[in-house]
């Protein structure tokens, strides 16, 4: 009976998928897989060198198709037996879903989808495919990755704020909280919300009095959290 379960919101970032072999970028001197984000993850980059941008995401897709959810993704999926869970992720991978989470909001889009470059509402499942120059939407415009690039609006933000406002527990995992507006979500909680942060290092801009900080990698941190919450994860 989901209605009677406490509302638990997981807010995840790149550190969540690090143990699955997908690199974060703050941990690599601000580079994402050796690229500057300005060169591969902005609308200007796509305008200037679309082939490079498409190839960057084709490589990320190849990497993702070889990756598996890690223990942290699995523990979060198991929380659904005990809580009414919504995962809000900044990640463009689908590892939460592969682990079994059924309610996932992708703030920054999804790697395995393409969208029209003239109408963002035209979104296509890529399945095993990639995107190349010349691949077009039904309106005849070039396809682009269905991801939110730096400098673009975040269409899912309003929905995410509404979800966080109702959260009874908010667990932030593996995000530097350096990317806005996503990072501002942690301030959208109601006064009664109990908050945890799991990360290798404490993110910036945190009013520490409001949080329990679990300094650990995502898998160990999620296991500790289960223990703290008294949830039996076998
Ligand atoms: P970030 O790279 O800015 O920060 C990563 C955070 O994860 C850091 O705080 C770091 O200390 C922590 N971390 C690293 N390894 C960890 C581990 N094993 N366990 C727990 N924490 C760990 O990431 P961000 O805040 O998510 O912002 C980056 C942006 O880049 C996001 O918007 C995202 O869309 C994109 N991105 C996505 C992916 C992905 O989909 N897997 C990967 C890289 C970047």
Can you describe this structure?
The chain is of the alpha/beta class and 234 residues long. It is built from 7 helices and 11 strands. The strands form 3 sheets. It has a 6-stranded parallel β-sheet, sandwiched between helices. A hairpin with a 6-residue loop joins strand 6 (109-116) and strand 7 (123-125). Nicotinamide-adenine-dinucleotide binds next to loops. The site of nicotinamide-adenine-dinucleotide has 28 residues, from loops.
Explain briefly what this protein structure is.
By secondary structure, the protein is α/β, with parallel strands linked by helices. Helices cover 26% and strands 22% of the residues.
């Amino acid at each position: 009976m989901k209605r009677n379960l406490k509302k638990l919101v997981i807010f995840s970032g790149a550190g969540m998928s690090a143990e699955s072999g997908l690199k974060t970028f703050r941990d690599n001197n601000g580079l994402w897989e050796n690229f500057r984000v300005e060169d591969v993850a902005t609308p200007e980059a796509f305008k200037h060198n679309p082939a490079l941008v498409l190839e960057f995401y084709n490589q990320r897709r190849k990497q993702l198709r070889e990756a598996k959810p890690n223990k942290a993704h699995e523990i979060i999926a198991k929380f659904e037996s005990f809580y009414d869970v919504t995962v809000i992720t900044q990640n463009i991978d689908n590892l939460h879903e592969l682990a079994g989470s059924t309610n996932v909001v992708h703030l920054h889009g999804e790697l395995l989808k393409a969208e029209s470059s003239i109408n963002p509402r035209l979104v296509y499942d890529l399945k095993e495919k990639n995107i190349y120059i010349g691949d077009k939407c039904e309106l005849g415009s070039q396809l682009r990755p269905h991801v939110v690039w730096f400098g673009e609006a975040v269409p899912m933000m309003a929905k995410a704020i509404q979800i966080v406002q109702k959260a009874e527990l908010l667990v932030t995992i593996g995000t530097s909280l350096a990317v806005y507006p996503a990072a501002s979500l942690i301030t959208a909680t109601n006064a009664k919300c109990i908050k945890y942060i799991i990360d290798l290092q404490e993110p910036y801009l945190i009013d520490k009095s409001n949080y329990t900080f679990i300094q650990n990698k995502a898998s160990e941190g999620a296991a500790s959290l289960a223990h703290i919450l008294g949830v039996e994860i076998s």
